[in-house]
Write a structure and sequence with these properties.
Elements lengths: L7 E5 L4 H10 L4 E5 L7 H6 L6 H14 L4 E3 L5 H8 L4 E4 L18 H6 L4 E2 L3 H4 L4 H13 L1
Parallel strand pairs: 1-2, 2-3, 3-4, 4-5
Helix pairs in contact: 3-4
Length: 151
C-alpha cells in the first residue's frame, strides 16, 4: 500500500488503537481516516452487535480512540458530526456519508442530514452517492447539490 502513496487511507476505528497507530506509522504522508459507526446502522443494529447505548456514545468513544491513536480524519454520520467536531476540535477532517438533499429517499441509511446541515454542523467533506448516481440526470443532480451548499 505504501508504494501507492494514497492521500487518504480508511480504517475502521473498531480495529483499535494499535491498528490505527500502525497505519499512521506505516504511511506518514497519508491521512488516516477512521470509520466510526456506519450510517446504515441503527441503535437496534448496534444493540444486536453488543454495542449498548445510543449511536452517539459509540461514535464519540471511537472518535476519541482514533484521534488519540493518530488518525487525522474520521468518518461519521451527519447525525453525529456536531458532537464529534466538539469532541475532536477543528483540525480533524470529518468525512460525512449519509448526506441527502431534502425530500430524497434515505434508502438504507439510518442517520442522515441535508448537505447544508452537515456542513453547518462541522463536516469537512460530504459523501453523496445515490442522490446523484440514481438520479435521472446525475450531472444535473450534482450541479443542484453543489449550488445548494454554495448559496
Amino acid at each position: 500500500m505504501a508504494h501507492l502513496q494514497p492521500d487518504i487511507l480508511t480504517v475502521h476505528a473498531a480495529g483499535g488503537a494499535a491498528m490505527i497507530a500502525a497505519a499512521v506509522e506505516a504511511l506518514p504522508q497519508t491521512r488516516v481516516a477512521a470509520v466510526t459507526i456506519l450510517t446504515s446502522l441503527s441503535a437496534q443494529n448496534l444493540d444486536e452487535l453488543g454495542i449498548v447505548g445510543p449511536p452517539i456514545d459509540a461514535v464519540r468513544r471511537l472518535a476519541s480512540l482514533a484521534v488519540n491513536a493518530g488518525a487525522s480524519a474520521l468518518v461519521c454520520s451527519p447525525a453525529e458530526v456536531a458532537a464529534v467536531r466538539s469532541e475532536v476540535g477543528p483540525e480533524v477532517l470529518l468525512i460525512t456519508p449519509g448526506v441527502r438533499p431534502v425530500g430524497a429517499d434515505v434508502g438504507d441509511q439510518q442517520r442522515v442530514a441535508t448537505p447544508e446541515q452537515a456542513l453547518a454542523d462541522g463536516a469537512s467533506l460530504l459523501v453523496i452517492g445515490r442522490p446523484i448516481t440514481a438520479a435521472d440526470n446525475p450531472g444535473v443532480a450534482a450541479a443542484h447539490l453543489a449550488a445548494s451548499v454554495q448559496a
